[in-house]
């Protein structure tokens, strides 16, 4: 077979065929490399695999350059160059074995193949090769996949980390993360995918982060993975805010506008939706639920309605929580960020601690006072706004003002009644505790609380009579007029009696 026996023997002819026909053609090189499966270690010893790998990478780079120049277009209006090329070899690489494929990708990186093409190839290879991976259910136990499937997933994730490809879609990254969890890949591989997801978490949807848990004794959802992704996102935000302050602009109101603030707000809404979805899980521990809430900064939520809804669902699904645990959980809600509807719901929510309800009512009262003080001057300015001739303007209807004042009065009356009910509940609870403990000196304390409650109750009824509306005002005017008429009649009678006495 060598030249020692005869010229142009079998080895010489094989080398000539490889050099002239196989290695110069990308399709032929792929075909020969696929035929090398099962011929180890002979093909490695003669160097056939390395030659095919290098040939594939070189031909792909040449075809990319030629096709790019052929499809190069110039936009006359903008003067920009646009390249339109399609790599046909992306689908053909999916037929390779995973170890051969890894070597081809590394060779393509050395020869200068575009990262976008490499990322597309990795995506297509993963979608093709991972179709047969079995799905694990929560109730399954024991090993269910072989080492080949685990090695396949770990290799693809390692390629994503090595190539530093930024064009991979977020849906593909979440798919790889779910697959890594299912095949029980190494923690380093999972952390690598989580870091890449954290770079663009603001583009994720709720279905993406609802990752089922594979542990039988844990909750239904993998909360730890979402927690690590959120940590990576916040680290990226801190780096952007510290290193790119010069790129920050100013909004229309003159305030500093950070490019990452909108991303934080999007992630805040995403996490609130995620908390509401996992809250009904009876196996979800309070520590994990609270840790996920505390991780987001305060400026990530403009309104805490979503957080209040999630906590309310958790309290309803976990009635065995102690009073101290409920207080710790409800302290995470900023009552000043609750809307009017959420505050009204919280004031009547029996699942919330009394301290939480009292805080809600307190801030609602402050809001009412600020609205009255700020809206009164505005209402007067609108009501007595005059035209150029000095005549008051009639653009504001008196009937509409009466309706608005009645609505405000009714709202304040409802709040006053709610405060009385809360105070009455506190007194009943304290009285019950005093009876159980058998405190001797508790009668004076209860009397003081009772007198305070009666005083607040009298003030409440005073406010109710004060906000009686136009009908009550009319009654008061009638009583006042009748009293004045009675007084005048009495004076006349006394004068007549006096005149009779002088006569």
UniProtKB/TrEMBL annotation:
InterPro entries: NPH3/RPT2-like, NPH3_dom. Pfam families: NPH3. It comes from the Eukaryota. Keywords: Coiled coil, Ubl conjugation pathway. PROSITE patterns: NPH3. Residues 403-430 form a coiled coil. Residues 464-503 are annotated as: Disordered. Residues 87-367 form the NPH3 domain. Belongs to the NPH3 family. GO terms for biological process: protein ubiquitination. It comes from Panicum miliaceum (Proso millet). This is NPH3 domain-containing protein.
């Amino acid at each position: 077979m060598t030249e020692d026996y005869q010229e142009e023997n079998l080895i010489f002819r094989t080398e000539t065929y490889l050099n002239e026909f196989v290695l110069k053609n990308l399709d032929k090189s792929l075909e020969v490399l696929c035929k090398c499966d099962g011929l180890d270690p002979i093909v490695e010893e003669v160097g056939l695999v390395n030659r095919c790998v290098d040939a594939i990478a070189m031909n792909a780079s040449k075809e990319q350059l030629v096709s790019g120049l052929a499809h190069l277009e110039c936009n006359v209006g903008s003067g920009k160059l646009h390249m339109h090329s399609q790599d046909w070899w992306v689908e053909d690489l999916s037929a390779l074995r995973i170890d051969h494929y890894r070597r081809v990708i590394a060779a393509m990186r050395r020869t200068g193949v575009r990262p976008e093409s490499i990322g597309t190839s990795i995506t297509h290879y993963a979608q093709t090769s991972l179709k047969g991976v079995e799905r694990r259910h929560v109730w399954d136990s024991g090993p269910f996949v072989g080492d080949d499937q685990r090695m396949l997933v770990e290799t693809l994730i390692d390629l994503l980390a090595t190539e530093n490809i930024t064009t991979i879609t977020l849906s593909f990254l979440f798919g790889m993360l779910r697959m890594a969890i299912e095949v029980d890949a190494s923690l380093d591989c999972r952390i690598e995918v989580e870091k890449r997801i954290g770079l663009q978490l603001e583009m994720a949807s709720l279905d993406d982060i609802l990752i089922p848990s594979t542990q039988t004794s844990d909750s239904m959802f993998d909360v730890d993975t979402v927690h690590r992704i959120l940590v990576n996102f916040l680290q990226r935000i801190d780096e952007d805010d510290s290193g790119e302050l010069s790129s920050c602009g100013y909004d229309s109101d003159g305030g500093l506008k950070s490019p990452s603030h909108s991303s934080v707000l999007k992630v805040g809404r995403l996490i609130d939706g995620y908390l509401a979805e996992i809250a009904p899980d009876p196996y979800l521990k309070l520590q994990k639920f609270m840790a996920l809430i505390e991780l987001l900064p305060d400026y990530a939520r403009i309104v805490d309605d979503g957080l209040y809804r999630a906590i309310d669902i958790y309290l309803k699904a976990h009635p065995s929580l102690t009073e101290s645990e409920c207080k710790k959980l409800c302290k995470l809600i900023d009552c000043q960020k609750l809307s009017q509807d959420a505050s009204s719901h919280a004031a009547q929510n029996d699942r919330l601690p009394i301290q939480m309800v009292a805080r809600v009512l307190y801030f609602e009262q402050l809001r009412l006072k600020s609205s009255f003080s700020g809206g009164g001057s505005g209402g007067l300015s609108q009501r007595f706004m005059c035209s150029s001739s000095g005549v008051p303007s009639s653009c504001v209807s008196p009937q509409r003002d009466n309706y608005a004042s009645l609505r405000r009065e009714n709202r304040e009356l409802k709040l006053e009644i709610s405060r009385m009910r809360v105070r009455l509940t506190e007194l009943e609870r304290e009285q019950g505790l005093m009876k159980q403990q058998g405190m001797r000196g508790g009668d004076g304390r209860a009397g003081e609380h009772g007198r305070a409650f009666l005083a607040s109750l009298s003030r409440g009824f005073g406010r109710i009579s004060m906000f009686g509306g136009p009908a009550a005002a009319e009654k008061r005017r009638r009583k006042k007029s009748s009293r004045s008429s009675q007084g005048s009649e009495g004076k006349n009678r006394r004068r007549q009696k006096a005149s009779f006495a002088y006569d």
